[in-house]
């Protein structure tokens, strides 16, 4: 019997053979560049714009605003240091012909004052656009998001009402998010649109791992295209120290980003979690359930308990700097963590993507194979 991943890949191929073939060719080009070229890479398939760090929630396990969150110490000025809309639009014009997908992230994206103008511009250039949101402002903006032609909306859900509200530090956020998704579905129906497709992401943590079935049940009421359970990204103190030391030595950079992920999950019944994950993976339902990373039972037990865990079922090679990149709210372009290769306020995205700094980063990653933080980074397990 086909496993879930290949079943999904097969479904995708049947739905859109041209797109699936293009993605296959992109993969081959990426592997060739990552293994055989001198740090140069074909244009990324995805660019993630963090439009703002500002957020109206304070989720416990958030790398930005959570227990160790790295933007909590930012001044008001630093928090408002965001790229202006004209620069953003110009940079989109420069890359439009590449047909790269654009993901919008935050903070909460809908707090960026010109999100509507930016998203409209991205869509006017024919680029795929994905919005990640906490759902707090969704209901009021649902119609606009459907009309604009947004392709995918991804919402994080931590569990049923009480669990979600507690994890997000807001007593009414579950209701707001649900009403927001329902409003999007209503407007899709009213306007005869099939987009945005809805995706639910649920980060597994010590606070919600006993509630995963309830997340599935909620997703079943929302006409979602996919439900993704993600294993928690967290760094133990010794892993963070090792990451910090190495980034200082190699790049003269402080690991500010990873400092936000210093978190030690409380006691978890990992046998229960491994059983639950196996059950969810094999579930046949209205939508696919994806577990990321798709660890074996033994790996799940080790991931949460062993320092410097190493997966046996993945290659442990990160291809992210060859396929995708982050643009931070202040315009910094980063392939990974706190390493900055350039800034879109000063130069075009294309001139940064294969500049010497970016190529050197790729070469060093290929040589080192892994940085200490990679083992807890979802990017490592995408290829
Ligand atoms: S909504 Fe997102 S950015 Fe805001 S605190 Fe929660 S996880 Fe962090
Ligand atoms: S897996 Fe490692 S190299 Fe890749 S993005 Fe994550 S931290 Fe960076």
**Strand order of the biggest β-sheet:** 7-6-5-4-3-2-1-8-9-10
Report the helical percentage: 40-55%
Report the order of strands and helices.
Answer: HHEHHEHEHEHHEHEHHHEHHEEEHH
Strand content: 5-15%
Q: How would you describe this structure to a colleague?
A:
- The chain has 383 residues and is α/β, with parallel strands linked by helices.
- The protein has helices at 4-15, 17-36, 76-79, 85-95, 115-124, 138-148, 161-168, 173-191, 212-220, 237-251, 256-259, 270-281, 297-305, 320-323, 349-353, 356-368, and strands at 46-50, 101-105, 129-133, 152-156, 197-204, 226-231, 289-292, 324-327, 332-334, 342-343.
- Strands 7-6-5-4-3-2-1-8-9-10 form a 10-stranded mixed beta sheet.
- Helix 1 packs across helix 2 and helix 6 (138-148) packs parallel to helix 8.
- The longest helix is centred in the N-terminal third of the chain and has 20 residues, at 17-36.
- The structure holds iron/sulfur cluster (2 copies).
- The site of one iron/sulfur cluster has 11 residues, from loops.
Q: What is the element layout, followed by pairings?
A:
Elements: H1 4-15, H2 17-36, E1 46-50, H3 76-79, H4 85-95, E2 101-105, H5 115-124, E3 129-133, H6 138-148, E4 152-156, H7 161-168, H8 173-191, E5 197-204, H9 212-220, E6 226-231, H10 237-251, H11 256-259, H12 270-281, E7 289-292, H13 297-305, H14 320-323, E8 324-327, E9 332-334, E10 342-343, H15 349-353, H16 356-368
One iron/sulfur cluster binds next to loops.
């Amino acid at each position: 019997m086909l496993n879930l991943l290949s079943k999904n890949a097969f479904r995708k191929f049947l739905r859109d053979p041209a797109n699936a073939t293009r993605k296959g060719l992109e993969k081959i080009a990426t592997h060739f560049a990552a293994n055989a070229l001198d740090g140069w890479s074909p244009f990324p398939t995805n660019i993630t714009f963090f439009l703002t760090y500002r957020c109206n929630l304070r989720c416990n396990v958030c790398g930005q605003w959570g227990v160790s969150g790295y933007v909590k110490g930012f001044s008001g000025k630093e928090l408002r240091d965001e790229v202006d809309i004209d620069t953003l639009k110009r940079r989109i014009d420069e890359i439009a012909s590449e047909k790269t997908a654009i993901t919008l992230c935050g903070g909460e994206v809908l707090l960026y004052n010109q999100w509507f103008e930016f998203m409209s511009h991205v869509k006017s250039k024919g680029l795929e656009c994905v919005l990640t949101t906490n759902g707090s402002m969704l209901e009021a903006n649902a119609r606009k998001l459907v009309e604009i032609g947004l392709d995918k909306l991804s919402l994080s859900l931590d569990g049923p009402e009480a669990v979600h509200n507690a994890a997000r530090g807001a007593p009414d956020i579950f209701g707001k998010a649900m009403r927001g998704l329902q409003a999007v579905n209503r407007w899709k129906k009213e306007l005869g649109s099939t987009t945005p497709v809805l995706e639910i992401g649920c980060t597994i943590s010590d606070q919600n791992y006993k509630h995963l079935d309830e997340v599935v049940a909620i997703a079943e009421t929302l006409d979602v295209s996919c439900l993704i359970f993600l294993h928690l990204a967290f760094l133990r103190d010794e892993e963070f120290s090792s990451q910090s030391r190495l980034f200082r030595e190699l790049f003269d950079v402080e690991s500010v980003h990873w400092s936000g992920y210093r978190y030690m999950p409380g006691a978890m019944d990992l046998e229960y979690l491994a059983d639950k994950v196996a059950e969810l993976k094999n579930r046949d339902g209205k939508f696919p359930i994806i577990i990321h990373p798709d660890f074996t039972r033994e790996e799940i037990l080790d991931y949460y308990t062993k320092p410097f865990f190493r997966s046996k079922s993945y290659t442990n090679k990160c291809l992210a700097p060859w396929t995708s990149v982050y643009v931070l709210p202040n315009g910094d372009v980063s392939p990974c963590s706190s390493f900055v290769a350039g800034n879109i306020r000063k130069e075009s995205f294309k001139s940064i993507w294969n500049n010497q700094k970016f190529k050197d980063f790729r070469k060093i990653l290929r040589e080192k194979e892994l940085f200490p933080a990679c083992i807890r980074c979802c990017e490592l397990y995408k290829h």
